[in-house]
Design a protein that fits this description.
This protein is α+β, with helices and mostly antiparallel strands and 117 residues long. The protein is built from six helices and three strands; from the N terminus they run ααβααββαα.
């Protein structure tokens, strides 16, 4: 992780929260399962990080089908400044890291049942 990343890890006391925030900067919304896939970590840790950010008022979630979709909380009083702060750190990441973890083409729709992979 870059110096900016280490700062966030210390600030939020979690490397996963840092990753979630960077992912949100790149994508604006997410499901826990897609983050779990992107970072190759158990979904439980991702859910805990998302819940923390939601409890702090930074993210909000809605239910889509059987899944919880997280997005930025438009009512968070410092949202514009917060996103600018996270964006600045995100922009310091190497391009290969951005592409590998944060700007992945992740399927947004469920696969048709029985369709081969």
């Amino acid at each position: 992780t870059t110096k900016g990343g280490n700062m966030f890890e210390q600030l939020f006391n979690s490397r996963l929260v840092e990753k979630v925030l960077f992912y949100m900067i790149a994508n604006d919304k997410c499901f826990a399962s897609e983050l779990s896939q992107a970072f190759e970590v158990p979904v439980f840790g991702i859910q805990r990080s998302l819940s923390r950010l939601e409890n702090q008022g930074i993210l909000v979630s809605t239910i889509e089908g059987r899944n919880r979709l997280y997005h930025w909380n438009p009512r968070f009083p410092f949202l514009t400044d917060f996103k600018a702060f996270i964006s600045k750190a995100y922009s310091s990441l190497p391009d290969n890291i951005k592409k590998k973890y944060y700007e992945r083409p992740i399927r947004k729709r469920p696969r048709k049942q029985g369709k081969p992979l």
